Amino acid sequence: MKEGQTLLVESIAGFSSGLLQTFVAHPLEIIKTRMQVDKSVKSIEPQLKALDVVKQLLKSEHPAATTFRGITPNLIGSSVGWASFFAMKKYAEDKIISFKTCPLSEDGIAATKATLSWYDHGLASAIAGVSTQVLSNPIWVVKVRMLASDAADYKEYHSTWSTVKSMYQKEGLKAFYSGMGISMFGVVQGAIQFAVYDTLNKYASKKEDGTIPKWETVVFSSASKAISIAMLYPYQPIRTRLQVHNAEAEHGKGIRGVSVQLWKEGGMRAFWKGGTPAVVRTLPATCVTFLVYEWLKPYLYKRLDKSSSRELPELK
């Protein structure tokens, strides 16, 4: 199969999985975001809890609309993000294999094709992650602006387009890349996740058709995501606060300023704000993403193989 076809399969499978997981997990995304930007100081007032956010959403004038506020940029970011990530990851893995595979020996015998180690999977994921982050960061900033506020409070953030327009007019292009530096920790998190996931997949009990049993996909994807979250979650509240409206005045200047403010609000525990809804949201969403991806990918490869074979002339 041609390289272009392979990357197309990866893109379609990634796009579809990202689209579906957003529909499943968006309500928990808004809960997590609002907890991360809550400025309650633990020693003075009760800190915002997930149930408090749920009550706020239900008491709003339009509960359903408020709960799914910001879903448009979330759908765009997640679907396009996963499509580009899986395609770029596959491309990087193929290049790593080509680099590691020795050329033909002197007697003309082809060398054995190299395999990927856990380090190689992590490296390919990091390369794909950096590229995807640069591409999708503007979408995530728009999403955070909408999720962290109510339409009634910030009318300029009423819709995706109005948010983009307001950000550009008031803050310029740089606003769309706020939090970009700290987001690179997300690249590391993704590298850890896929280094674990792809390594576990090597030990999966594959079926006759080469596919992995669904229960193993659920276990492997959940385990790899849980490990990566446990190692690097504290960067997420910092990133979210850097991306909201009037971030410097509300939460401090830069990564250091935001970190100091978080520490004042509750010590080390403040860096885990939104952690519970993040886990509750992320693990099912991750399972959905990988179940759809692992199911759709072999199906698309088979369809392309059949299509390619029909184009070939019949041998006589």
TrEMBL record:
It holds the Pfam family Mito_carr. One of its GO terms (biological process) is nucleotide transport. It is found in: Membrane. Its main location: membrane. Coiled coil: none annotated. SUPFAM superfamilies: Mitochondrial carrier. The chain crosses the membrane at residues 175-197. The keyword Transcription regulation does not apply. InterPro entries: MCP_dom_sf (IPR023395), MCP_transmembrane (IPR018108), SLC25A32-like (IPR044712). It is a multi-pass membrane protein. GO terms for cellular component: membrane. Solcar repeats lie at residues 5-95, 116-203, 216-299. Gene3D superfamilies: Mitochondrial carrier domain. Keywords: Membrane, Mitochondrion, Mitochondrion inner membrane, Repeat, Transmembrane, Transmembrane helix, Transport. Belongs to the mitochondrial carrier (TC 2.A.29) family. This is Mitochondrial carrier domain-containing protein. It comes from Coniella lustricola.
